[in-house]
Amino acid sequence: MTDTGLATVAVLGLGQVGTSIALALRDRGVRVLLADSDGQAVDSAVDRGAGERLDEDAPRADLLVIAVPPEALPGTLRNAQERNLASVYTDVAGVKAAPATRARQLGCDMTGFVPGHPIGEETFTDDAARPDLFRGAAWALCEDEGTRPDAVTLARRLVELCGAMPVLMDADTHDRLVALISHAPYLVATAMAGALVDAPVEALGLRPAGVGCVTGPAAVDPELWRQVLNQNARWVSCVLSEIAADLVDACAALQLASTGDDSYFGEVAELLRRGHAGRRRLVEAGHKSTG
Amino acid sequence: MTDTGLATVAVLGLGQVGTSIALALRDRGVRVLLADSDGQAVDSAVDRGAGERLDEDAPRADLLVIAVPPEALPGTLRNAQERNLASVYTDVAGVKAAPATRARQLGCDMTGFVPGHPIGEETFTDDAARPDLFRGAAWALCEDEGTRPDAVTLARRLVELCGAMPVLMDADTHDRLVALISHAPYLVATAMAGALVDAPVEALGLRPAGVGCVTGPAAVDPELWRQVLNQNARWVSCVLSEIAADLVDACAALQLASTGDDSYFGEVAELLRRGHAGRRRLVEAGHKSTG
Asked: S-S: A64 plus which of A10, A269, B1, B246, CB 3.0-4.6 Å?
């Protein structure tokens, strides 16, 4: 084991996030063991220099990163722990409380599992893996009172080796915050993008900036997002109910205005001012402008 | 008059769009006359090399560009025509039918007025003027049966000198298309951004990519957008009513799912797939990805 405490890391699941973690770790000299239910994904990652195949002879890893969709996470964790593949386990799913509850029900050892989630690394333009995907991004780590301190130390070290900033919070706090800043925006983007399915081709050809910006997150895999939203349904519905109500009200005011009655247009103006103020808060919080 | 037919252009209104047009024309050797109700805006534009002050001694322009908010447009056009400032007039407002109707009511000469709208030039990151703001962008020009052919020729030439692509369409078609690709996305972005006004600071500090992308258009001046939405209320309400209904339905399905009842989650999954397909259509139409 090197002085980082992370000499060997295993990565299960070689999508964009898993492969990018592997590439980042290889750049820092960590030995990386790769596995995926799709053998071709392993071949591709090995070819890219992301590490070596995790086989029967592989050493026990210091840390194992599970980078699979949230519904597959609890079973994958249990299986990896039964095979004793590593000392410490973490994951990267976008929702934290429900998968942890399920893992506990399955009898997983939760003392050596540190739920994790890299935030803000999404690009929406492609799904290519790259070693700097997480550079400067926040990365939530959700310890609870039962988590072993050495497990948290190794998970933090993983985050730092990927160039990201560890942010410790409990799983419920994580799920509440990302409902607002990630899951609800995704649903809003998706509803807007859905209106484009039947859009006249001459409209899309105008290549407007606004709709391109707003619909960006709809580029992400809908099945992955179905799982995330389903497992964070309570918090997402709380945020979404207010947004949906604002849009229903705005729509009613617009319908009235189209008949020449501006009685409720003051509320639309208020919504616009509020949105402008909310956007300014985001920018002032250091958000890197993507739009 | 040079071979372009545009030797002298006047620009009324020196915000980002008006000043950027002036800068682009200066780069192409056109004489540009500048005016704004705010004298300081004229000084700044002159200092930036965007042209010279439009004063009493100024020559009659070949074309006058009105770059003011839509509510101010009809009165500004009438006043400019009364002063006989140019042979041909155009504008850049984001909505076309209602201001034209009002201008007609005010007695404007509509034969020499070609309503225009540069589309897709927005950046949402700053409001700085620059000569290449319109490069490669679509720019709608709305002639009707009464428009003089020489007026359309000059307006097209303006668009080409700015590096943009003229797209001819009638005003109603314009308003219907931009309701879908610009005005509704703006309202959706604004409703999402409004939810951030009271967001916990630790949520914003995670600097998530999704919400930054989705809320981009909310950075634009809310008073300008109030006018645009009000004047395109009918088409925007048509688009928005479906989006709002989708979000209301998704919210109800999420609330049920949070109680363990997935009965309606299939509809959420369908919404996600539809959004993914809509986004793909936009990208396939050559949209430059900003998210």
From this structure: A10
Query: Long-range contact list for B220-225, CB < 8 A, 24+ apart?
Result: B220/A276, B220/B122, B220/B124, B220/B186, B221/A276, B222/A269, B222/A272, B222/A273, B222/A275, B222/A276, B222/B190, B223/A269, B223/B69, B224/B69, B225/A272, B225/B186, B225/B190
DSSP chain B: --TTS-SEEEEE--SHHHHHHHHHHHHTT-EEEEE-SSHHHHHHHHHTTS-EE--TTPPPEEEEEE-S-GGGHHHHHHHHHHTT-EEEEEE--S--HHHHHHHHHTT--GGGEE-EEEES---SS-----TTTTTT-EEEE---TTS-HHHHHHHHHHHHHTT-EEEE--HHHHHHHHIIIIIHHHHHHHHHHHTTTT--HHHHTT--HHHHHHTGGGGS-HHHHHHHHHHTHHHHHHHHHHHHHHHHHHHHHHHHHHTT--TTHHHHHHHHHHHHHHHHHHHHTTPPP--
**Cβ distance of B167 and A273 shorter than 8 Å:** no
Q: Determine, for residues A188 and B191 on separate chains, whether the beta-carbon distance falls below 8 Å.
A: yes
Name the band, by pLDDT with cuts 50, 70 and 90, for residue A1. Answer: very low
Amino acid, res. B227: Q
- B228 interaction partners in chain A (CB closer than 8 Å): none
Whether the Cβ atoms of residue B86 and residue B150 lie closer than 8 Å to each other:
no
Q: Which of B167, B255, B268 has the CB atom closest to A226's CB atom? A: B268
Prediction pTM value: 0.93
* Contact call for residues A36 and A42 (beta carbons, < 8 A): yes
Query: What is the torsional sign of CA B190, B257, A177, B212?
Result: negative
Which ipTM value was assigned to this complex? 0.93
Residue range B135-160, pLDDT digits in tens: 999 999 999 999 999 999 999 999 99
Q: From the CA of B236, how many Å to the nearest CA of chain A?
A: 7
Contacts of B123 in chain A (CB under 8 A): 209, 291
Could you tell me which chain B residue has the CA closest to the CA of A117? B206
